[in-house]
């Protein structure tokens, strides 16, 4: 049953594909913006719950140098992630 829960590495792959946030270094990340520019975001919050039988949840908070925050919460089930919350302020 635990094979249904995608891994944290799969989350980071999904995050890059879905939201253009690349976190190869896990704390300091880059985010693609419009006009092909890239800027640095810092992971300021993280919550991963994987105790569930068939799924897991991941919550991440990223902040740029201007204090703008991006909050992503997702559910992982059947080998994929799906957005629950995407809040960019």
What does this molecule look like?
This protein has 89 residues and is mainly β. Helices cover 13% and strands 52% of the residues. The termini are far apart.
What topology emerges from the helices and strands here?
Blueprint: H1 8-19, E1 21-22, E2 28-32, E3 38-49, E4 55-63, E5 69-77, E6 80-88
Antiparallel strand pairs: 1-2, 2-3, 3-4, 4-5, 5-6
From the structure above, extract its key features.
single chain, 89 residues, mainly beta, 6-stranded antiparallel sheet, 1 helix
The count of DSSP E runs of length 2 or more, i.e. the number of strands, is: 6
Q: Note the quaternary state here.
A: single chain
Radius of gyration: 13 Å
Give the proportion of residues in helices: 10-25%
Distance between the termini: 37 Å
Uncertain regions: pLDDT < 50 for 5+ in a row? none
Strand order of the largest sheet: 1-2-3-4-5-6
Biggest pleated sheet: 6 strands, antiparallel
Q: What is the H/E string?
A: HEEEEEE
How many distinct domains?
Answer: 1
Q: Pairing-aware structural class of the strands and helices? A: mainly beta
How large a portion of the residues is in β-strands, by DSSP E?
Answer: over 45%
Number of helices: 1
């Amino acid at each position: 049953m635990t094979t249904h829960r995608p891994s944290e590495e799969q989350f980071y792959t999904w995050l890059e594909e879905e939201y253009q946030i690349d976190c190869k270094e896990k704390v300091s990340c880059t985010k693609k913006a419009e006009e092909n520019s890239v800027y640095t975001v810092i992971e300021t919050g993280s919550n991963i719950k994987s105790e569930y039988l068939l799924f897991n949840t991941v919550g991440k908070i990223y902040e740029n140098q201007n204090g703008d925050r991006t909050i992503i919460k997702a559910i992982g089930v059947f080998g994929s992630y799906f957005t629950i919350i995407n809040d960019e302020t």
